[in-house]
Design a protein that fits this description.
With about 350 residues, the chain is of the alpha/beta class. The chain folds into two domains: about 180 residues, FAD/NAD(P)-binding domain (3-Layer(bba) Sandwich); about 170 residues, Alpha-Beta Complex (Polyamine Oxidase, Chain A, domain 2), CATH 3.90.660. About 25% of the residues lie in helices and about 30% in strands. The chain contains ten helices and 20 strands. Strands 1, 2, 9, 10, 11, 12, 13, 19 and 20 form a nine-stranded mixed beta sheet that branches. Bound molecules: flavin-adenine dinucleotide. The site of flavin-adenine dinucleotide has 41 residues, from helix 1, strand 10, helix 4 and helix 10.
């Protein structure tokens, strides 16, 4: 017999967890099915000697992202300002760079104390332990009986529900989940045309004992044409027990795939050396996360998409199958599409829709 629940949420990233948190507050019977062996989705921390470093999203803007501001307060978390004091560097060609005293592009950006992972841990603590099923990859959904077939540790498992909420990017569920009956070509094209924000990026964190760039009156912020790191920022945690430079790799996913990872790291270190000097070679730890290689975040369509922030559709349908299948997730938020705030915005909308239908 399949396991039955009133509401099943597919995906335990920020959007799925926040949807579950809101539905649990109104006494709904919910279960979250999550493919990975961890919650958080694109939110992920790397740790060095207990200090957290954001390998996924780092920045929040609580001054205009009111849901995120509220959640941070509800979970008793704090934010701190992105470190931007000091000059920026602009590297035009290899070994040819200039110092700028200009305004940083992140002077109004904030970070969550303890890393964005704190949002995930905070939400998880509010949920009943039994409501999250890890290592459970949803493979197919049938309208008849609202039946979900999933794989848990190589075994098939089945669930039924009164309502199902998808809290994952449309490109992912369109590619990996079979719907019976199939959706129309118009809907399939809409989902395939909705890029998963930042899913093709590769982030590298260089951890240090000392903030040598600050000692040179540099903010750590760098924009580079030759790369391989195209953007670099100060990624130090708030407690400053350790310090970090956090960087985005400028090579695209295909170029990275064709390159040995040790060679990539080696050329990133060479770039840091020409920008900041020999002291930059004293890394305590290096964390690398290439999101384009992660099957639960990125699809082939994303790998071939432009990297600019997309315009997400304002009026796309988010309810299907006679108000039994609903869409949440950052990529279906009309106002803050792609962002953490969008993950919460879409969840709030879905909770209101589920309750009223
Ligand atoms: C490198 C990087 C930097 C970013 N920087 C910022 C930033 O500074 N500020 C900002 O606001 N946003 C940023 N973002 C975007 C932010 O991470 C997302 O908006 C947010 O995390 C989306 O949350 P979500 O829950 O909607 O989706 P996800 O986090 O993608 O969660 C979807 C969940 O569904 C699960 N799943 C997938 N397939 C299945 C399946 N078949 N069955 C079951 N479960 C499945 C996944 O494992 C995942 O846990 C960044 C993202 C990345 C990758």
């Amino acid at each position: 017999m399949p396991e039955h629940h009133n509401i099943i949420i597919v995906g335990a990233g920020l959007s799925g967890l926040y949807t579950a948190y809101k539905l649990q507050q109104i006494e709904q019977d919910i279960v979250l099915l999550e493919a990975r062996d961890r919650t958080g989705g694109r939110i992920l921390s790397g740790f060095c000697m207990g200090s957290p470093f954001d390998l996924g999203p780092a920045w929040v803007w609580p001054q205009m992202q009111l849901r995120l501001d509220q959640l941070i307060s509800d979970l008793n978390l704090d934010v701190f300002k992105q470190h931007t004091q000091g000059d920026m560097l602009f590297e035009q060609h290899v070994s040819q760079f200039e110092r700028y005293r200009g305004q940083s592009s992140h002077s109004e950006s904030y970070r969550v104390s303890g890393g964005n992972q704190m949002l995930i841990e905070g939400l998880e603590k509010q949920l009943r332990v039994s409501s999250i099923r890890l290592n459970t990859t949803v493979k197919s959904i049938a309208k008849s009986g609202l039946r979900i077939e999933a794989v848990h540790k190589e075994k098939s498992v089945a669930y039924t529900a009164n309502k199902i909420i998808f809290a994952l990017p449309p490109r992912l569920f369109q590619k990996n989940i079979t719907f019976t009956p199939a959706f129309s070509e118009t809907i399939v094209q809409l989902w395939e045309g909705t890029p998963t924000w930042m899913s093709t990026h590769c982030k590298i964190i260089f951890v240090y004992e000392q903030p040598f760039w600050r000692e040179q009156n540099l903010s750590g912020e760098v924009f580079s044409h030759p790369g391989p790191l195209s953007e670099i920022y100060d990624g130090s945690p708030q407690d400053e027990k350790l310090y970090a430079l956090t960087a985005f790799v400028g090579l695209n996913a295909q170029q990275r795939n064709n390159m040995d990872q040790n060679r990539l790291i080696h050329s990133c270190l060479a770039q840091l050396q020409r920008l900041f000097g020999d002291v930059s070679q004293n890394t305590l730890d290096i964390h690398i996360k290439d999101w384009s290689c992660d099957e639960f975040s990125c699809t082939d369509l994303d790998v071939n998409s432009p990297v600019q922030h997309p315009q997400y559709p304002q009026h796309a349908p988010r309810k299907f199958w006679g108000n039994k299948l609903f869409l949440a997730g950052a990529e279906v938020a009309p106002e803050y599409g792609g962002y953490l705030e969008g993950a919460l915005e879409s969840a709030d909308r879905v909770v209101a829709a589920v309750v009223s239908n």
